[in-house]
Automatic annotation (TrEMBL):
InterPro entries: DUF6327 (IPR046290). The chain crosses the membrane at residues 54-74. It holds the Pfam family DUF6327. Keywords: Membrane, Transmembrane, Transmembrane helix. It comes from Flavobacterium cerinum. This is Glutaminyl-tRNA synthetase.
């Protein structure tokens, strides 16, 4: 890496301000990425929409069909 030669304090301050903004931006990106990772690791997000869809389908059935479908699903799970 080549060293930069500064001739005035204004040049130094300008580069320091640019570096501070870049550091703040990198920190904000990291924090956002960390929050997204935490959210994706929650149990409901790991399971997905499948249980919700299955329960919605079972809810649409009536009487004996509902109990038979529920029993079949429990047998498959366990």
């Amino acid at each position: 890496m080549e060293s930069k030669v500064y001739y005035t304090y204004e040049e130094i301050n300008r580069d320091l301000q640019i570096l501070k903004v870049e550091k703040d931006l990198a920190h904000a990106k990291f924090a956002k990425s960390l929050d997204e990772t935490k959210e994706s690791l929650q149990p409901m997000n790991m399971i997905g929409e499948t249980p919700k869809k299955i329960l919605g389908f079972i809810g649409a059935l009536s009487g004996p069909l509902k109990s038979a479908a529920f029993a079949w699903i429990l047998k498959k799970i366990f």
